[in-house]
Amino acid sequence: MNTNPRIKDLALHDRPRERLAAHGAESLSKEELIAILLRTGLKGFSALDVARQLLAQFPTLDALARASLSELRTVKGVGRDKAVTLKAAFTLAQLMAREIQAEAPLLDTAERVADLLRELVRFGEVERFHVLLLNTRRRLIRVEPISQGTLDTILVHPREVFRPAIAANAAAVVLAHNHPSGDPTPSEADIKVTRDLIRAGQLLKIELLDHVILGRKTAERPKDYASLRELGFFYT
């Protein structure tokens, strides 16, 4: 027997849509925001019930965003239309992240780099290496894809990294790639590549500011990224 309250049984000021309108989206929980997207549930079950089931099967938003349409539809109460709505919402988040890239954001910290690239690499099943080209004020010129590797290995050559930087008249660059395993801890290869590229940048008078590796948060790991500069690897 379902013991969770249905949305229609809640007081008006406790219903997700009314609370969002009155207090803003930040006041809602994940399940309440998902329930708004779902709109309705099954007979005897509310959209909140279905949202709870979704989060029980896909415990994080990252896992939910990665789920395919067919995987979403394995949850009771999620048919084709609801699965499509969820997939559309997460895809819009990715598109928003790409639009932000075009607004010349200030990238003077590893956290800001991670914020910029998080949605771009979230669904990567292999390592993808990017170089961020920056002007003299540390604002983004553009993100340049460099290479795509296997699950564990990626090949990066200085000419691929610095050719677009020279062409764009960039004053500095930031390296970034993802670890599909979710653990952003740098490997020995990551450290070696970084030091090689630091030396190449010094010769070309283009400063390498950082190398940011993106992964996923866990209960034990509150940050989903690692900065090689912050970890003390920026010496040659």
Overview of the structural elements:
Strand 3 (172-178), helix 9 and strand 4 (207-214) form a beta-alpha-beta unit. The chain is of the alpha+beta class. It has helices at 16-23, 30-38, 47-57, 61-66, 69-72, 80-101, 110-121, 158-167, 188-204, and strands at residues 128-134, 140-148, 172-178, 207-214, 225-227. It is elongated, with a radius of gyration of 21 Å. It has nine helices and five strands; from the N terminus they run H-H-H-H-H-H-H-E-E-H-E-H-E-E. It has a five-stranded mixed beta sheet, with helices on both faces.
Short structural summary:
The chain is an alpha+beta fold.
Short descriptors:
236 residues; Cytidine Deaminase, domain 2; 2 domains; elongated; 14% strand; five-stranded mixed sheet; 5 strands; 9 helices; single chain; alpha+beta; DNA polymerase, domain 1
Could you spell the SSE succession in H and E letters?
Answer: HHHHHHHEEHEHEE
Give the count of helical stretches. 9
CATH class of the largest domain: Alpha Beta
Going by CATH, what is the homologous superfamily of the largest domain?
A: Cytidine Deaminase, domain 2
Rg on CA atoms, Å: 21 Å
Q: Which structural class should the secondary elements be placed in? A: alpha+beta
The count of domains is: 2
CATH architecture of the largest domain: 3-Layer(aba) Sandwich
The helicity comes to: 40-55%
